[in-house]
Write a structure and sequence with these properties.
Blueprint lengths: L1 H31 L33 E6 L7 E4 L5 E2 L7 E2 L5 H12 L8 E7 L4 E6 L5 E4 L6 H7 L12 E6 L5 E6 L1 H5 L13 E4 L1
Parallel strand pairs: 6-10
Antiparallel strand pairs: 1-2, 1-5, 3-4, 6-7, 8-9, 8-10
Length: 215
């Protein structure tokens, strides 16, 4: 009788040990299984849209400006291009195109007309992404003489601040601005810094190509 009880106890113990081993192996298998991948495909990342450097619809493109030319549904033609020193740009399917002196809308119309020879109903958008053609110059008794980008609505007072201020030898009442008019004739515009700062004289709005001279 005792023998039967002992055999039965050993049998139950063996079954319990087998169940414990099986449960441990199952847990290890779950831990080593790679995580299931989501079957739903992810949408491809979209390219960032170019940011316009100017929103002025009347802005005239100049040499060294960067343009983004987008032709709808034609990625092989769409691209960013610089305006060369001769004022032209190059695009596939087209010969050199004059860009300087045109607004982005006008240039887009010219590109559209050129592409109509080989494409049906092309839709072209031109964006100025970098304005590099509009510059002014500062020379004379300032801390940082040189060439600077012309920001829209910039004045001579702001331009002088960008140049780091005057040296101790600057004659601030004899400053002048050299500017060429539409006929190419050079003008000399006086600028008395001290009077402008005190509100006794008007500040001078700058134009592209102006040179500020500080004697």
């Amino acid at each position: 009788m005792r023998m039967r009880k002992l055999i039965g106890f050993n049998l139950l113990l063996g079954l319990a040990l087998a169940a414990a081993v099986s449960a441990q192996e199952s847990a290890q298998t779950k831990q080593t299984e790679p995580p299931k991948q989501d079957a739903k495909p992810q949408a491809p990342a979209t390219a960032a849209k170019p940011v316009a450097a100017t929103t002025d619809p009347n802005y005239q493109i100049g040499a060294d400006d960067m343009l983004d030319v987008s032709v709808w549904n034609e990625p092989q033609i769409s691209r960013s291009v610089p305006v060369r020193p001769d004022g032209k740009i190059s695009l596939p399917l087209l010969e050199d195109i004059q860009a300087a002196g045109l607004t982005p809308t006008q240039l887009g119309d010219h590109i559209t007309e050129g592409l109509k020879k080989t494409m049906k109903d092309p839709q072209v958008t031109v964006i100025v992404t970098a304005v590099n053609s509009r510059r002014y110059y500062v020379t004379g008794e300032v801390q940082r003489a040189g060439t600077y980008p012309l920001i829209p609505d910039m004045s001579a007072l702001q331009a002088l601040a960008s140049a780091g201020g005057f040296t101790v030898f600057a004659n601030r009442s004899k400053i002048y601005i050299l500017r060429r008019d539409e006929n190419g004739k050079q003008q000399r515009i006086p600028f008395d810094y001290d009077k402008v700062v005190k509100g006794k004289s008007q500040d001078v709005p700058l134009k592209a190509g102006d040179t500020i001279v500080i004697p």
